[in-house]
Amino acid sequence: MNTSVMIVGVGGQGTLLASRILGNVAIKCGYDVKVSEVHGMSQRGGSVVTYVKYGKVVSSPIIDKGEADVILAFEKLEAIRALPFLKIGGKIILNNREIAPMPVITGACEYPQGIVKELSSKASVTSLDALNISLEAGSIKAVNVVLIGVLAKTMSIEKQVWLEVIKETVPPKFLELNLKAFELGYSYGG
Question: 128 - beta bridge partners?
């Protein structure tokens, strides 16, 4: 049976590094892995969606509606947009932050309220302030690895594999920061 993880956020949040870490962890565990990145206006804070599927044999990286085992959401509005893709009994790991899209910035509409409540009524949600946790690690740029740490705690893959992949994937000058961010997320998760 395959595992499907949908990683959603906005440009600049590090969703692509998160998908690379997850994909490399699955490869290291001997799984067939497929990753597909879908960019909106990512360079301008637009939606970024990455599908990561792994298992014995994976024929396509695309995750259809109702298929995602986990939605790893870097932002609340992106989580609600991705909700139709979550399978019944799936999990959402949510950075409880709001990043205003252009229509909100220009005043054309308001940021929707009650997103966490709505998500929680439809799925198992772990909601956290990953930004503040990443600051504790040393930089707001480590939100992605905090969330990967939370995800890792919920999965049946040894912690050591995640640490090895982070060491292999993250540039050396950011390694200590990202290892600390992972540990803080891992201790939060589960």
Answer: 95
